[in-house]
Structure formats: C-alpha cells, structure tokens
C-alpha cells in the first residue's frame, strides 16, 4: 500500500512559559483529509499545540511542517490553515453574508469571486436562508456555523477547531458533532479539533491523541483507544474504568497469572491485543463497567479465580444507583472495601431498577475483557 505523506508533521516540539513546560517534546503526523482530535484535561497543552500550528505561539524547540513546508518563519496569515475559536468571534454588526465575506475582502479578493465563494460556503454550512440576518437573530448552533463558513471560505488546507462546541447545550452539541463530521467529509480537508470532552472526540475523530502534562500518552483510532488503552491515565480518562492493583505471579501456555488484592489469583489470556509485561512486576487490572454483569447468585468463576471459560466473579453489596434514562450506573461495595461500578441497560419500560440499594449481588466479567496495564 502506498504511503501517503502527512499534511502536518510535528517533530520534537516543546513550548515553555517560564518554568512551566506546556508542550513537552511532542511528535506526531496528521494525514490529509483526516479528522484528528487533541484530547486531554485542562492544562495538558492541547490548545497551546493548536496555537503553535496556527502560528499564534512560537516554538522553543522542534519543527512544524504543513504541506511539506517548514512553518518556523511563516506568519499566521500566511499559513494554509484557518482557526475556529470557542467564542465564535462573529461580528455582531454584520450580516451572515458580510461575516463570511470579511476575510476575502481583507485580502482584496475580486467582488465577483467573493459572491460565489461566500454562497458556496453558506450552502456547505446550510446557512443559505440566513445570509441577510445579523448574529443576534441566530441560535448558538447557527452562529457556530457562521464561524465555520467564515473559516472554510478561505479554502484552507487545514481547519483548526478550538473547543468549538463547548458553549452549546447538550442536544445541540450532539447535533453539531454530526454536522462537523458531515462537513469534513463534504469539503475533504483536514480537521484538527481540541476538546476535553471524550465523547466528542470518540464520536467525531478518525484518530485521537490523548495528552497529559504536555506529553502525548497515546495516539489511536477511537475504538482502539477505548478497548486497548496503553496506560492507567488513558484507561481512566477515556470512559469509566474499574481499576485494581495486582502483581504478576506466574505464566503458563497462553495465560498469565496475576495476584490481585480482593480477587485472588487470576489467570488471564495473553492474546488480548495489548502489550503484556515480559517479567514479574506490579500491574493494573482494569475492566469497563459495561462489561460487568450482576447476578443474585454466584456462578462460574466463584471465589475470584478464572480458568477456561469461567468468568471472574466476586460478591458485593449495592450501595448507590445513578439513573440516566437509557442506563443505570450501579456502584457496588466489594468485600475488600473497593467500589466497583457496573452499567446496566434499562431495556424494560419500568420505573423500578433491576437491582436495589442494599442488595447482595454477585459481580462477574469475562477474563478476555480484562486489561493489564503496566504504566
């Protein structure tokens, strides 16, 4: 298969603000026509990295290339990128058409070309019927689309999106996520989005880079990132996770034995797609809440062990239930005192929960659903 040259290449990039290292030796390539997400908690360096791509921040070390050209000495207005900010930054005194046309007028684009390109951008963002309106006559989602149209009208190679949906309410944010994916597919350019919302990144991006403390912890497709995180931080940050501490106790054909406090010795398959440790040492044992099943009686795997087709199982007591409509999150206190969470799908049209607070339950999960984390 022919190797496609990256549209963006970031090599050894570091940025400091005084004693604080905001971005720490970051290296990654972003492909043409890719929807790429920079994901992480506040202060992890993702917005600083985006601003360096746009040229609004200088690099202390490393290089950034866009379209094969080094951007070190290229001013922001000369870069083949455009940026959409969290605050939209639309001009309140201008109509939608004038807002979208503004950037083209600044660079003295011929009037005839301005008209056709603005109308093309308005059509892409489904704003044709709003061209004559002012921003205060629009909804939040419509104003966000104006900001997108104004960025796209300049036909950048790369569109940079800095938390573009954070000011929207939940239902509108979900609708705009689908809208951005549709838009990216239709215009066929590279989108890079910065977000702290894991669901936003998982639902939109082709690949995601998870950042912590200025460093990239993992880059992967959404499904790979969720099912096979490479460290405790990524496992805990992406979705919810039950995490136990353990230690490798032995090996046999196709299995690894791990001693886990409160669970005893578990024998887990080593063909889970993750990187199993090569030698004895402390490890994290993790399982997603949706993989956990709750029973009223002990089943196969009773006593904490797991062998053959048996499930890992242990007793506990329900101490809290959080109802979310489609699902209920059940929190169980184990005999060790640790809290285990399980997500139950609310399939029946009933106000009653399938389990009750104070009820004794048996928790179980398949050994193949367990993640072994070494860092």
Characterise the protein shown here:
Helix 3 (111-124) packs across helix 4 (140-152). Strand 12 (255-260) and strand 13 form a beta hairpin. The chain has 375 residues and is an alpha+beta fold. The chain folds into two domains: 8-233, Rossmann fold; 240-373, Beta Barrel (OB fold (Dihydrolipoamide Acetyltransferase, E2P)), CATH 2.40.50. The strands form four sheets. Strands 6-7-8-3-9-10 form a six-stranded mixed beta sheet, sandwiched between helices. It starts with 7 loop residues before the first strand and ends with a strand. It is 22% helix and 34% strand.
Quick overview:
The chain is 22% helix and 34% strand.
Quaternary organisation of the protein chains: single chain
The CATH first-level class of the largest domain comes to: Alpha Beta
Question: In total, how many domains does the architecture comprise?
Answer: 2
Strand arrangement across the biggest beta sheet: 6-7-8-3-9-10
Shape: globular
Number of helices: 8
Distance between the termini: 34 Å
Label the structural class.
Answer: alpha+beta
Instruction: Note the beta-strand portion.
Output: 25-35%
Helix content: 10-25%
Question: Mean pLDDT, nearest integer?
Answer: 86
Give the low-confidence spans: 301-309
- Overall CATH architecture of the largest domain: 3-Layer(aba) Sandwich
The helix-strand sequence is EEEHEEEHHHEHEHEEHHEEEEEEEEEE
* Total beta-strand segments: 20
Q: Please describe the biggest sheet, giving its number of strands, its sense, and whether it closes into a barrel.
A: 6 strands, mixed
Radius of gyration: 25 Å
- Could you tell me the CATH topology label of the largest domain: Rossmann fold
């Amino acid at each position: 298969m022919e190797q496609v040259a990256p549209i963006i290449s970031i090599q050894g990039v570091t940025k400091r603000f005084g004693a604080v290292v905001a971005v720490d030796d970051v290296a990654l390539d972003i492909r043409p026509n890719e929807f790429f997400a920079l994901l992480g908690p506040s202060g992890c360096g993702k917005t600083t990295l985006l601003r360096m791509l746009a040229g609004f921040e200088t690099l202390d070390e490393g290089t950034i290339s866009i379209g094969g050209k080094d951007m070190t000495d290229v001013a922001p207005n000369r870069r083949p990128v455009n940026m959409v900010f969290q605050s939209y930054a639309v001009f309140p005194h201008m109509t939608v058409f004038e807002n979208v046309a503004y950037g083209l007028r600044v660079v003295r684009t011929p009037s005839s070309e301005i008209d056709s390109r603005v109308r093309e951008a308005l059509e892409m963002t489904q704003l044709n019927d709003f061209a004559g309106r002012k921003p205060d006559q629009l909804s939040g989602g419509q104003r966000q689309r104006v900001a997108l149209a104004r960025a796209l009208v300049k036909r950048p190679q790369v569109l940079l999106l800095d938390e573009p949906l954070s000011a929207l309410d939940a239902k509108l944010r979900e609708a705009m996520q689908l809208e951005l994916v549709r838009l990216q597919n239709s215009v066929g350019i590279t989108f890079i989005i910065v977000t702290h919302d894991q669901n936003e990144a998982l639902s939109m991006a082709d690949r995601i880079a998870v950042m912590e403390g200025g460093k990239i912890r993992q880059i992967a497709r959404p499904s790979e990132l969720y099912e096979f995180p490479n460290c405790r931080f990524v496992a805990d940050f992406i979705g919810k996770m039950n995490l136990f501490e353990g230690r490798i106790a032995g090996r046999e054909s196709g299995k690894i034995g791990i001693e886990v406090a409160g669970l005893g010795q578990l024998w887990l398959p080593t063909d889970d797609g993750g990187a199993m440790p090569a030698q004895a040492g402390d490890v994290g044992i993790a399982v997603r809440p949706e993989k956990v099943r709750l029973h009223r009686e002990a089943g196969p795997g009773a006593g904490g062990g797991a062998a053959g087709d048996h499930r890992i199982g242990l007793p506990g007591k329900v101490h809290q239930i959080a109802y979310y409509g489609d699902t209920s999150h059940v929190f169980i206190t184990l005999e060790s005192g640790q809290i285990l969470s399980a997500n139950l799908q609310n399939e029946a049209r009933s106000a009653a929960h399938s389990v009750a607070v104070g009820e004794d339950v048996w928790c179980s999960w398949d050994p193949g659903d367990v993640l072994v984390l070494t860092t």
